[in-house]
Amino acid sequence: MKQALHVAFAIYLCLLQACAQVPVEPQPLPPAAPLAAPLADVAATQNIDLSLPLSADALAAIAVYSNPDLNALRVAQGVAEAQVFAAGLFPDPTFTFGLDAPLNGDKVSSALFLGLGMDFAALAGRPAAMRGAQANLESVRFDIAWSEWLTGEQARLLALRIAYLRQIRALTAQLRTLADAEVEHSLHAAVRGDVPESALQGRRLAAADAADRDRSAQLQLRTAELELNRLLGIAPQEQLQLAAPPQPTEQLLSLQALYQLAVSTRTDLMALRAAYEGSQAAVDAAQLGRYPLPTLDINAARDTSRIKTLGPGITFTLPLESRARGCRHRHCGAGAAARRIPGPTGNHPRGPCRCSGGT
User: Fold this and answer.
1) pLDDT of residue 358
2) Which of 175, 203, 225, 352 has its CA 20 to 30 A from that of 45?
3) Measured between alpha carbons, how far is 176 from 250 in angstroms, rounded to an integer?
């Protein structure tokens, strides 16, 4: 028994040494990224020639690569990957050591107790936890893909809006110039006495209206340019040279074809389907709470009479009242909305929740 005590004490010291090697100080934060990157640096990563006008596709590629919100979402993918790794780890065994020193009696020794246990409940829930973590990772990836698509399409729409707003701005500036010239000519004519003073009022109102339209078009154009720069993650003072907008097309799909295409290709729906699979895995894990899964122990002991014993031990929780019903109903409620999401074929193929009494 002394040898077993020495082995247990050596294992305890090894565990303490391993814990002591874990760094306790938090890692320093990385240096703050610049608020906006130069356009040339961003374009170089996408092999885009800035000497040519930027097309809508080029702007979409720059936006997907450099948008700050998308970069923050990509960090969340690393967190989900870490959760998958944590879910795949096997549960750690438990080690128990006890020492009872006798207070009276003759020719007695201290009682020792050693135990090594494994929680089979945690081991049985590992596959469901892995499926749930993997489904959560897929959901995060699909969410990132959907956000990238939205960002790219927003960049394309802003490029078209800016192109047309520049055309409108050129027309309003021309109208303002003509209206101001008309007022100036009318003033000279009124000085010569060719037209009465009352005729100038209408021309002044027309010039004021043209100036107001020009300022409104200029404000809308600058707002759209700033929004595009923010979306691309570049400095606000950057001026982009945009290509001419493409000609509009009249080839549109039918409503049913658009619905089928959206159901089968939209990544946000794919993310919801993956979230449903994750909720179903959580339901399967909660279902294990209905059963008294044991914790198996191997115990070695020596009593005060120096009698040594070795044998197994089993510990489990009796599922009499709770039986994890709260967890099961909560996860079933979370998956109820996901079951109404159309499948890739447009129907609702999912069956009822596997909980008792699920709908």
Assistant:
1) 40
2) 225
3) 35
Of residues 257 and 319, which shows the higher confidence score? Answer: 257
Nearest C-alpha neighbor of 242 from the set 154, 162, 151: 162
Class of residue 20 by CB neighbours under 10 A (exposed 0-12, middle 13-18, buried 19+) = exposed
Integer Rg of the chain from CA: 36
pLDDT in tens, 48-107: 777 788 888 888 888 888 888 888 888 888 888 888 888 888 888 888 888 888 888 777
Task: Report residue 359's pLDDT band, with 50, 70 and 90 as the boundaries.
Answer: very low
Distances (CA, A) of 344 to 142, 165, 255, 272, 339: 14, 39, 17, 12, 13
d(CA 298, CA 96): 10
CB 312 within 8 A of CB 299: yes
Helix residue ranges per DSSP H, 88-196: 120-124, 126-192
Mean pLDDT of 34-49: 68
Other CB atoms within 10 Å distance of the CB of residue 72? 10
CA distance 353 to 280: 8
Cα–Cα separations (whole angstroms), residue 223 to 54, 148, 161, 210: 19, 22, 11, 20
| Residue type present at position 230 | R
62, exposed or middle or buried, with CB in 10 Å at 0-12, 13-18, 19+?
buried
Q: What is the DSSP string of 63-82?
A: HHHH-HHHHHHHHHHHHHHH
Say how far apart CA 200 and CA 195 lie, in whole Å: 8
Q: What is the mean pLDDT of residues 331-355?
A: 50
- Which segment, 45-54, 116-125, 159-168, 292-301, is predicted with the most confidence on average? 159-168
CA distance 110 to 301: 11
Pick from 178, 256, 248: nearest CA to 210: 178
33-36, Cβ contacts within 8 angstroms, sequence gap of 24 or more: 36/229, 36/233, 36/234, 36/235, 36/236
Q: What share of the chain has pLDDT > 90, as a percent?
A: 12
**Residues 171, 216 contacting (CB under 8 angstroms):** no
